[in-house]
Structures are given as structure tokens and as C-alpha cells.
TrEMBL record:
The name this protein goes by in its record: Methyltransferase domain-containing protein
Source organism: Rhizophagus irregularis (strain DAOM 197198w)
Pfam families: Methyltransf_25 (PF13649)
CDD domains the UniProt entry points to: AdoMet_MTases
Segments forming domain Methyltransferase: 87-178
Biased composition (Basic residues): 1-21
Source superkingdom: Eukaryota
Coiled-coil portions: none
Length: 310
């Protein structure tokens, strides 16, 4: 009997252990799937190894170069031509900006880091090196190393409570007297209802991850609050998205459409909005395009730049 009782006890305790293990397993599966969801949501903001994504980023680079008629606002061109300058690009993606600069300024040295190695590691100029690294773990370089540190289009990725750390790292690896420049798009003004809806969806999805895009127009104030920086400059350009903005307007229209209609973005955003993929694609490919024919939404791109105190 005693034996039977303890057998029952053992069986019960084994079964409760199993139950506990099962629930632990289910909980860990649940959190794994939540993480996968998060990863999936982030994926279309990261660089992906597909031609469409890489082409879009190259186009985006040449679009911004066209809008500013140059590749940077910091006063370093003479130094780059003379040679010996060291330049770092953080979150360099396929390396469009760096490839452009490294081929033009052959006597200076260029470095790019990205969490995803989508950059061309084999076919590249000799004065350009890429490295796979997560900037949130600290930049893998010593203090006071670079003459110019650049970061472009990361507003979808950096969380509100990470900006100060990121900026402090940019400043740390910059030489005294060197320059930092951060380049970001600022949400459009005068948008019609479809564009407003598309931007609000991204804004809300970002907020769920702790990314607050409403901080971006005030990045100069955030940079200025750091030690070793005295004055932050803003170099801002605006342009109209769509056919009312001429050729440039059509190029940025295409960039926005390809970004929003990638398979990953379509899957994620349509399910978040509770509409079918077809309805979502119609919204972007038909309604958005039609709206742009009769509206003049103004998008801004802003370079925030500063010199590290000598
Ligand atoms: C929108 S893309 C911009 C790429 C490039 N700066 C440009 O303007 O074409 C953002 C880039 O940041 C990279 N990235 C995201 N998180 C990162 C991290 N923690 N550390 C380094 N790079 C990161 C992504 O892989 C992606 O290439």
C-alpha cells in the first residue's frame, strides 16, 4: 500500500514535473515566437540579401546625393582630397555612400560597420574596409580614431533610450577637431489620407518597439547636450513626393513604394492592420499613387552635423 501510495505520489510528482516542463517549454516557445515576430517586424528595416533591397538602398543614396548635390555637409572635403583622413560609416548597409566616397577620395581611408554583412567584401576599392558589428555593443574602435563619423537613415532602428548611447559612441571614436554627421528623413507634411495612414502605421509599429520617430526633428538638441560638442548645424532640404515633384518626386515615390510592398513589409503590415495582403497592396500601388497625382506632400531630409571640440 505504502509502496503504491509513494508510487502514486511519484507518478503525480513526475506528471506535475512533466506538466511544469511542458508549460516551461510552451512559455519558451511562446517567447521564441514573440521574438521571431519582433525579428520579422524589424527585418524590413534592416538590410537584406536580395537585389531589390540592395538596389533600393543604392537608389536612395543617389537620390539624397542629388537632393544635396553632394555626399556630406561637414567641411572636410579638402582633407579628404589631400589624403590620410579616416572616415567611418555606421549601419553602412550595402556600402553605397562609402563606395562612392572611397572611389573619389583615393588617398583617404574608409570603414563601414553593419550588423548584417550585405556590403561587397570582395569587389571594392583598396582604401575601404567593412566589418560586421552591432553598434549597440559599442563601436569596435579605439577613442579619437576618425576624422569623420557618419550615420544615415537609422531612425527606424534606434530606440528612444538608445540615442544618447549611440551619439556618445560616435563622439568617442571621433578625433578632437573631427566631425560627426547624422542624416535622417523627417515625416512628410501636407500628406493626403493614404500617405498619412502609411506613415502612422510605421510610426505606431516603431513605437511598439520603443522607437520614437518624433525625436528626429530635435536630434540637434540631443547631440548638443553631449560633452565635447559646442554647436550642431542643420542642413535641411525638402522635396515633393510624386509626379508633382518632377523626376526627383517620381524617384522617391518609387523608393517608398518598393519599401512598403516588399514581401516582408506586406505580410507584417497587412496583418497588423487586419486587412488582406491584396487590400494592402491596392492601398499602396493604386490609392497611394492616385493620391500623389493630386497632392503635394513635402518630405524633408536633414543632416545634423557637429565638430568635436579640439
Ligand atoms: C535603413 S538601412 C540604412 C543603410 C545605409 N546607412 C544607407 O543610408 O543606405 C539601416 C542599416 O542599419 C543596419 N543596422 C541595424 N541595426 C544595426 C546595429 N545594431 N548595428 C549595426 N548596424 C545596424 C541595418 O542592417 C541596415 O543596413
Amino acid at each position: 500500500m505504502g509502496n503504491n501510495k509513494s508510487k502514486v505520489k511519484r507518478t503525480l510528482s513526475n506528471s506535475s514535473k512533466k506538466h511544469h516542463q511542458n508549460s516551461q517549454y510552451l512559455l519558451s516557445k511562446e517567447s521564441e515566437s514573440r521574438n521571431l515576430d519582433k525579428e520579422k517586424e524589424l527585418t524590413y528595416y534592416l538590410s537584406n540579401h536580395n537585389d531589390e533591397d540592395i538596389d533600393r538602398q543604392h537608389f536612395n543614396h543617389f537620390f539624397r546625393k542629388h537632393i544635396f548635390q553632394n555626399n556630406f555637409s561637414v567641411p572636410i572635403e579638402e582633407g579628404l582630397i589631400q589624403g590620410g583622413c579616416k572616415v567611418l560609416d555606421i549601419g553602412c548597409g550595402p556600402g553605397s555612400w562609402l563606395l562612392d566616397l572611397a572611389s573619389k577620395y583615393e588617398n583617404s581611408y574608409f570603414f563601414g560597420i553593419d550588423i548584417k554583412p550585405v556590403y561587397p567584401n570582395e569587389i571594392k576599392p583598396k582604401n575601404l574596409e567593412f566589418c560586421e558589428a552591432d553598434m549597440f555593443n559599442g563601436l569596435p574602435f579605439p577613442d579619437n580614431e576618425f576624422d569623420f563619423v557618419h550615420q544615415e537613415v537609422m531612425s527606424f532602428i534606434i530606440k528612444a533610450d538608445q540615442w544618447n548611447y549611440v551619439i556618445s559612441e560616435l563622439i568617442r571614436v571621433t578625433k578632437p577637431g573631427g566631425f560627426i554627421e547624422i542624416v535622417e528623413y523627417i515625416s512628410p507634411e501636407n500628406s493626403g489620407p493614404v500617405l498619412t495612414n502609411v506613415y502612422k502605421t510605421h510610426f505606431d509599429l516603431c513605437l511598439q518597439r520603443g522607437v520614437d520617430m518624433s525625436l528626429i526633428p530635435n536630434l540637434d538638441k540631443i547631440i548638443e547636450s553631449h560633452q565635447n560638442i559646442s554647436q550642431v548645424h542643420r542642413d535641411e532640404r525638402s522635396f515633393i513626393i510624386g509626379p508633382n515633384g518632377g523626376k526627383a518626386g517620381l524617384v522617391i515615390q518609387d523608393i517608398i513604394i518598393t519599401f512598403n510592398t516588399s514581401d516582408l513589409a506586406t505580410d507584417d503590415i497587412s496583418s497588423k492592420k487586419g486587412i488582406s495582403k491584396e487590400e494592402y497592396k491596392n492601398m499602396i500601388l493604386r490609392d497611394f499613387k492616385n493620391e500623389l497625382k493630386i497632392t503635394k506632400p513635402k518630405l524633408k531630409v536633414c543632416r545634423f552635423w557637429a565638430q568635436k571640440n579640439a
